[in-house]
Each structure stands twice: as C-alpha cells, then as structure tokens.
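[scheduler] slot 2 assigned
[scheduler] job type: sequence-to-structure, two independent chains
[scheduler] chain ordering preserved from manifest
[runner] begin chain α
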Amino acid sequence: MSTSTRMGLSLGLSGIILALGHGEPSVTLYFANWIYIALLLKELLVGFFIGFIASELFYAMDSAGRALDVARGFHQVETKLPGLNGYSTPIGQLNFQLLLINFGMMNGHIYFIENIMNSFHTLPVYSLPDLGGGLDILFLTIMKYSSGLLSLGPALVFPGLFAVFLTDVIFGICNHIAPQLRAYFIAMGVKSIVGLLMVFATIHLLTEKIFYHAKESIIFVQYLIASMA
C-alpha cells in the first residue's frame, strides 16, 4: 500500500470518527499548552500501540517463513511484499498471504476499525488515560504478548525445519561414507523440496494457528484499550 493511500484512508477514517462525535468535546474546555502536548503524546502512544499489535502478527508470519527459507537455502530469492512495505522470501510471502486471507475471512479489518473508533470512546481525546499500575505495567503486558508471537514463528515452521535438519544429517552421513558423491550439492536441492513439501503437508495446522492468533490479536487490542481507560 502506497503512502498516499495510507494517508487517504487515515484522513477518511478521521473524518468518520469526527462525524460520529468521538473526536470533539461536549463542552468548551480551556487547557494550558503543556496539557495539549500531553494529550497529543497520548494519542500518538495509543495509536502506536494499536498499530504495533495489529501488525506484529504479520511480521511474525513473515519471519517464520524467512527462517524456513534460510534453512532450505532460498533466502536470497526475495520479492516485493507491499503489505509490509518491503521484501520477503517465498515461504514468507505464503505465510503473509495466508494470514491476510484468514484475517479478511474473520472480518478482522472491520474489528480493527471498530477498535480504533472505540478507543476514542473509551479514551476521549480531551482526557488523559488512567494507566492503573503505571506505564511499566503496560509495557510489560505488551512485551509478554510479543514474546508469545516470537515463539510462534519457529513453532509454525518447525516441521519444515526438522525435515531440513534430518536431510542435512542423512546427507552428512552419506558424505562421510562416500565423499565422492558430493552429497552437499545434492542435499541443497533435496532440502528445498523437502521443506516445501512439509509446508504443504501441514498447511491445515498452520491455517488453524493463524486464525486463532489473529483473533487473539484483536482481543488483546480491546483489552489494552480498556486497561488504559
């Protein structure tokens, strides 16, 4: 998605929120300049948290596919991935598109927009958030959620990684027994095929995990907004 498209969607969504009355005060308020700065920083912080959590799962899927492509020797084959504004490997592209399809099937984009709109209702523009235990507790909660996603990536591609590892072990033994076979070069092609076959063999399990964690990300955003109210 281009920068102009993102800016257009942001401005359009802002206009809808203002039209619904979530972005304007019910009474005339007078604040000091430093309070306006604090309110601006609050909006930036809330927006960053929502965007970071919503995109984190997509980056986790891309990194998982990239890890498998590195193991099977395909990490140098990269193509443009517009969704993340960068490049990705073949399996990374596949994981990203699977997540995107599942996210759309569960109306995740609608829930995401609802979370943004509800954040202006739960955390009004002209009020500061109540962090309860403090900002450190908030960051700790986000870090715990992020650590779970970091472990999700290797778990999703573990069958492929394990198959590639066994292939290396088998051809390593063959190379030790018969060095003239040049097993290293043969293993490169075999690892690529074996890793890809394991991805397609376990794709139904991958889809179930993706669907589950996509729902969890939406629920976590709702919880995070509520915890700052």
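[runner] end chain α
[runner] begin chain β
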Amino acid sequence: MYEDLINLNINIEKEEVDKFKKFQDFFLKYNEKINLVSRKEVNLLFEKHIFDSLAINLFFDKYKIKNACKIMDIGTGGGFPSIPCALHYKNLNVVALDSINKKINFIRTAKKEFSIDNINPICCRVEDLPFKYKNSFDIVITRAMAELRIILEYAMPYIKIGGYFIAYKSVKADDEIINAQNALKTLNAKVIDKIEYILPIEGENKRVLLIIKKEKETPSIYPRKNGLVKKNPL
C-alpha cells in the first residue's frame, strides 16, 4: 500500500516503510484502549489517515518548500497529520495541539517509542495558547476539524506574515470558501490555491488542500475566547 505514496511524489525507503508499519501496529494496539479513531476506520488507517496526512507533500513540491519549517497542527486528535509529517519530514518542527489529554498522552508515548524528536505535543485549547505562539509559525495545518470560517480564526493569529494555513478538506471546500469570505477579509487571509488529490480507497475519495496565505497581521483580538469562535463565527 505504501507504493500509493508515489501519487504524492513521495518515494520512501524500506527502512522508513518498516517504521511506518511499526507505528501502525503500535497505533492499533493503543486504539483498542482509548479509541483514537472510530473502529470502522481502523482497517483503513493508512489510506484515510497516514496517506491523507502526507498529502501535504503536494504543497511542499508545488511551492518548493525545502527549508526547515515550524508547523502547528491544530486539533491533531490521534496525531494526524502531525505524526506522519514529523516521521517523514525531519526538517519540520511540529507542534501537535489538542485539548483532549488522552490524545496528547498518546502522541507523547509515540514520540518516545519512535524517537520522534521533531514533534512537541501540547494539551491546550488553541484560543488559550500563550501569546508567544502568535505570529510564530511558518505553516498551520488542520484536518477534519471544523468549518473553514471557524478554523480560520483559530489558525491565522499564529502564522507569520507571508506564511500559510493549509486546511485538509473534502470536495465541499468551495462552499466553505464562499461562507468564509468575511472571515478571510477580517483576518487578512487569502485563499491562493486548491490542490486536489485522491485517497487510495473506494467511494468518497476526493480531497482538497486549501492553501491560504497570511497577507497582513491578524487583529490582536483574535482568536476570541469563551467559545465565541463557534457561537458567533466571523
């Protein structure tokens, strides 16, 4: 199944394939205890989670991102996309953020088990992050987290001017972009690209990376706290 990564312009050596397979086994055993992903998706862990996570390579290739980058994965859950990205891209410094302690504990355990030195798990709500994290990341990513107009407010304050927000989305991305026009304008962000790809599964397998650039500094009041981001989206 790892030969499918060729479609993402990824060629990995046998040693790395073996490491990913060991991670899969480790994840599946852990998942039996705390249910990191739903049971119906367990048999498609590579196709729906690892492959999908590594689709970011389509962005790296197209935009010729070769230098070391500081990335934050908001709402990482069981470590997707953060763990596959950190495992494969040694030049990334990845912050894996989630507010659920059991999920962050899994990432901490995986970090130790597989010596993933370039990942930093943090248990915190994104709107409660210390001020030092604002304007500090080259790239922020989210996957299957929330509607675009909501996650924009969570993501944009933490990106450097000229940096990128990458949202993993389904084919309904165009509708979300329409609904997010006010948020984009308010947060000084612009959708500059949509990169389409296909998951190696049957059925609904079309996915999109929305590439959003931070053009100017985000107003300091964002992200709002006390649940206002979801209660009253921009």
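[runner] end chain β
[qc] chain β: The domain at 2-231 is CATH 3.40.50.150 (Rossmann fold).
[scheduler] slot 2 released
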